[in-house]
Amino acid sequence: MTTSTELEAAAFRKLLEHLDNNKDVQNIDLMILAGFCRNCLSKWYLAAAEERDMEMSHDQAREAIYGMPYSQWKEQHQPPATEEQLEAFAKRQEQP
Predict the structure, then answer these.
(1) pTM for this entry
(2) Which of 2, 10, 24, 27 is 20 to 30 A (C-alpha) from 75?
(3) Sign of the four-CA dihedral 18, 9, 41, 36
(4) 3-state secondary structure 33-69
(5) Strand, helix or coil at 1?
(6) What b/e sequence results for 23-47 when a residue is b if at least 16 CB atoms lie within 10 Å of its CB, and e otherwise?
């Protein structure tokens, strides 16, 4: 019998796979549109580990989400934000 935890874990793995297959979708675009990004996911992942008294560093949590060290992902897949992205992000931050 499949538990809700197993379904949630499978959905989370699919989300990570989808993000990995769409590296062109930048974190700032995710933040503008959805209010969260890969970095948010890594922070939530780390918080879940800490709630369960599991040893994990911020870098380890990021690697679990990005599938590689964050510095490597950033170098290979994250161009500088455009003025338009920065303006849209600032506008999003002003929303309640």
Answers:
(1) 0.89
(2) 10
(3) positive
(4) HHCCCHHHHHHHHHHHHHHCCCCCCHHHHHHHHHCCC
(5) coil
(6) eeebbbebbbeeeebbbebbbebbe
What integer pLDDT is reported at residue 34 of this predicted model? Answer: 94
Domain boundaries 4-94, CATH class = mainly alpha
Written as one letter, the residue type at 31 is M
Question: Can you say whether residue 10 is alpha, beta or left, with left for phi > 0 and alpha for psi between -120 and 50 degrees?
Answer: alpha
Distance CA 32, CA 91 (A): 9
**φ/ψ (deg, to 5) at 14:** -65, -40
Gyration radius (Cα) of the chain, Å:
15
- pLDDT tens for each residue of 26-53: 999 999 999 999 999 999 999 999 999 9
Stretches where the chain sits below pLDDT 70 are none
Residue ranges of domains in the chain: 4-94
